[in-house]
Design a protein that fits this description.
The chain has 544 residues and is an alpha+beta fold. The protein folds into two domains: 293 residues, no CATH class; 90 residues. The protein is 56% helix and 11% strand. The protein has 20 helices and 14 strands. The chain has a five-stranded antiparallel sheet. A five-stranded antiparallel sheet has the order 7-8-14-10-11, with no helix packed on it. A two-stranded antiparallel sheet has the order 1-4. Helix 10 runs parallel beside helix 12. It is elongated.
Length: 544
Amino acid sequence: MNYLKNKYIKNAAIIFSFLFIAVLTCLILLTCRFWLFGYDGPFHWQRFVTFKNNMFSNYDLNSTMGSAVMSFYPKFNLVFLGFLSVFIKNTWLLLYFNFILEVFIGLIIAYYTCLLYTKKFLTSYIFAFVFMTAMPIINWYFGLLDLGLITAYLFLPLVFFGTLKFIEENKYVELSLGLTLIFISHILTFVFASLFVFIWFLFNIKRFRLVNYINILKISLLVLCTNAFYWLMIVKMEWFNEINKPHFQTLQGFPESTMYIEKNGLVQVFIILGLGIFFFEKFSKINKQIYLVTVIITILSSRIIPWHLLDHTPIGVIQFPTRFMILSLLTTSYLIAVIGAKVLKNMSNPTIYFAISVIALLSMNMYNQWGTMNTAYFSSWGSKVVNNRLVSYRIKNGKHIKVTDIDTGDFADYIPKSNLMRYIDVYYHTGYDEEKNPIIFDASGSGTLHLKNTAFKKELHLPFIGYKGQDYNVLVNNHKVRYYLDKEQVITIKNIDKGNKIIKISLVKGWIDYISYVLTTLGLLSYAIIGYKQIIKIYLKVRK
């Protein structure tokens, strides 16, 4: 009992320390009362507003324009924000508390996944601390509001240690769970994580037997089935429509600038790559592989690879090859923990030096917060509007600035290419009749449009995007009418009488939707059964 009691006290102390660290990671930014919304911030905030008002819709019915952008972006990265918004109504506080919550959860995941693998407290604690206080996290969240990347980052330790367990013990559940959670958080990080796992498998392919390949198949099926509700919708949209995807002008690796190197954690990576040369012979076989994988990932992130030659290929969807660096941050954080734990154990007072190291790293993190704050608060471009996007805004004298109505009209991602010329009109709820006369509708959300029709219309082109392969119900004053998609892929109806009209558009679920629900249910049931077996196994072990 004393052992269990001490164990519980120790874990409670560790978790409390993680909460303290999570608060410190944004304390200076919080007290400075400002927010750097970033260039894509308005777009991601609009995603959150849509998610909050209609959690289960894959289409932007909230703003009544019909965009299927929600089908192409995973929603799990909005869950934490949605949960907190139930209790916190102030937008500014909501964003800060969401960051604290995500860092706190990330610390717990990183610590316990590492502990289950290494069975070493010091290594696990250092790994969690270094991994979740890395400088890029502040830049991704406060500079870009990249909710997907931050959320996926939390689950990378599951993939990392799950891969190591698969190679050494042929255990597949942790790796499968990590890939599943990343898939529904940020699709590009899933691609990078899959490549990361593939490189590991290539290093160890000689060790694989038939049972390993069977378990790889199990991992693939679990990930694909559980996420079927997401990827099957994308397949449907891509199959029937030519979709306009986000594209960065030029693919390029680092270095872009000294500031980029500082903010994206390359200093940490380069230091460990240098130290690794001296410690390489002392590394275990698996740690040597970790070091080599770090070198490979760093090269993939750099301009050594001629990424610009792939600008106009499907690989262009990556946008920023430098995002590979999140994997180098993962592996170097672990190598720091391994090296740091060994060095501390050889010191006369390891506890004191450990505390000094923690304080030093927290000080570096706070310095980075101060630098981020200076960039936005004191620079000439603070609070500037670019193309109707609020790049940065700050709060003075305790006043709260609402950002729920930020204009995102120039974001045309994931709409049919044939609709590009009409997209702005659709966004501002402007349709037209058979003579191309503009008609402005009132939109009340949930696919509802209001029109005061002053004359009979042979054709009425609604400000609502229609996707091929997706069926719709169109009601005019509660009467179902036929519709078709015009050449610009907006929903069009015919023979509309004079008078006040309420037009209601809703989605019709097809066989692909129901197949995706069945597959996702099977995936979740599989995880539930695996979890139940693990609980029974632990219970029986404790009883003995």
